[in-house]
Specification:
It contains 12 helices and 10 strands. The mean pLDDT is about 95. The longest helix is centred in the C-terminal third of the chain and has 17 residues, at about 225-240. The strands form 2 sheets. An 8-stranded parallel β-sheet has the order 4-1-10-9-8-7-6-5. By secondary structure, the chain is an alpha/beta fold. It starts with a strand and ends with a helix. Helix 4 (about 110-125) links the parallel strand 6 (about 100) and strand 7.
Amino acid sequence: MFKGSLVAIATPFKNDQIDEAALRNLVEYQIARGTDGIVPCGTSGESATLTHDEHCRVIDIVIDQTKKRVPVIAGSGSNSTHETVYLTEHAKKAGADGALIITPYYNKPTQEGLYQHFKYVAERVDIPIVMYNVPGRTAVNMLPDTVIRLSKIPNIVSVKEASGSMDQAAAILGGAEKGFGLLAGEDSLIYPLLCIGSDGVISASVNVCPAEVAEMYDAFVAGNTARAKELHYKLLPLFNALFLETNPIPVKKGLEMMGLIGPEIRLPLLSMTPAGTEKLKAVMQQVGII
């Protein structure tokens, strides 16, 4: 259902408030450069530090600015199932095309708990759901058998797979219901996962290299795998540099160097270290981003 190069868009701040003008400009920057969908309030959007009002406001701004030119998949997950329902209901009412829902973090649910969590939300909010599995963040890995079970629920349409395991992704792609999608959650695996049948990526890196990742995806689906592979190897150093420090620290620094946002990031995250900044700058120059 959702395909292509989708951006996990950063949330710009100014004076510890959402910088609405900068956020709207980021949306325009992405759409103009071929990005296939906007995902607000994910990890890269610092969703964990937003108040409920801010969370909903970011979603509203992105939907309003996008104006249905590309899909908006609103981040609406939480470690609380009831809070997830609340945020997902807002996403639906606001006009989002889908909801990105993370596996509950900190609680460390069992596989059955994960199944019941997503089933509960899906039965209460009629919106296409993209599950988000990122065990490095959540301390729980949603295993392929659980994803395959959940793929049978009609409005659970895809999974953003960020375990880093090609075997796990392959098991999902091989066993899920027909039409169920998988989107890369590790930017360095965009091309390899396309090769085994993924639908694209929800990417932090696309914040700073939207045209390049869009071209990689478009080349692959057009059958020009040689060009897609060439772009993969060109971008690989950048993908790695954008995770030198905790995401979205390097992404926001990259956007700042591009003149697209200000320097603010919310505690407990801090701005990128000088050493990390120099490494990122060098790679961005090497790739031709700045």
